[in-house]
Amino acid sequence: MSVTVAAGVAVAVTAAVLVRDGDRVDGAGGPASPAPAPGSPSGSVSPGTVKPTVKGWKAVVNPAHGTAFDVPPDWEVLEPQIFSGFSDDKDPDKPAIGHTAPAFFKKKWCSLDANGDGYVNDIALASTGTKGADGAKTTDEVAEKTATAWAYSAFASPDKEVVKWDKPVAYTTKAGVKGSYVKARTEGAKKDHKCAGDGWAIAFGFKNSKGDFVAWDFYGRSGVQGAVRDDVVMRILGTVRLSGDPVSDPLGKEASPPSP
Q: Do 171 and 86 meet the contact criterion of CB atoms below 8 Å apart?
């Protein structure tokens, strides 16, 4: 699997970086230059007009899905049209899991020349964002598939056996958004390079204003100095809210996670 927009590293060090900005797919390790934001139809919300609900935090807005949430002030928030994710094991140009409007914590936490070609990727300690969930039937399904896909892609690939997850939990955010969340983790991920090791993910499945299933997600390394604490992640989750009507996704549909 691939490294995200300098936001994570797969255990398979031969994987390529997948960064998508507009219609462009690069093999670069840093953030792509933001594409112009699409026009906003009536009922949509411009990201710049959304204020955080937690004092001193930053609002992260995803117009493609009509969602928003907040992150602490030391996180870096990228443009809404930026896609980050992990590529398929067999096809580096095909995303296996990804989201748009990402935010990153300690974006240059670890640096790695993944395939020995002299190009160094900067790898973040954690990332969060939102994505679509086409074809899902329940919020439990959205949460389970999304959380396990991020844990596998970011930390376990190609070893599925080290991915463990909890049962879905019904949850309502402070804004009244109802859904389900699932926590997934790796136990015994291979440490075959300095940036590898165990990590965890959480996904919250819910519906946007159009009744479409979407997911907020987080993934990050665990058991290392400075790792994002569970209570901080849950506080971020608590800020998830609807933010106007969804607009057309300039990148098309994000990758749908496989069944765990």
A: no
Report the C-alpha gap between 9 and 123 in whole angstroms. 6
Is the four-CA dihedral 250, 16, 217, 147 of positive or negative sign? positive
Tell me the CB-side half-sphere exposure of residue 16, using CA atoms within 13 A.
15
Give the CA radius of gyration of the chain. Answer: 17
What is the rounded distance in angstroms from the CA atom of residue 243 to the CA atom of residue 247?
11
Mean pLDDT of 65-86: 95
Give the global pTM: 0.82
Q: Please state, in angstroms and rounded to a whole number, the distance separating the CA atoms of residues 114 and 42.
A: 45
Report in angstroms the alpha-carbon separations of 63 from 113, 184, 218: 34, 27, 18
Tens digits of residue pLDDT in 226-253? 999 999 999 999 999 999 999 865 454 5
Residue 214: CB atoms within 10 Å = 30
Least confident segment among 7-11, 58-62, 79-83, 148-152: 7-11
Cα dihedral 236, 240, 243, 246 in deg (nearest 10): 110
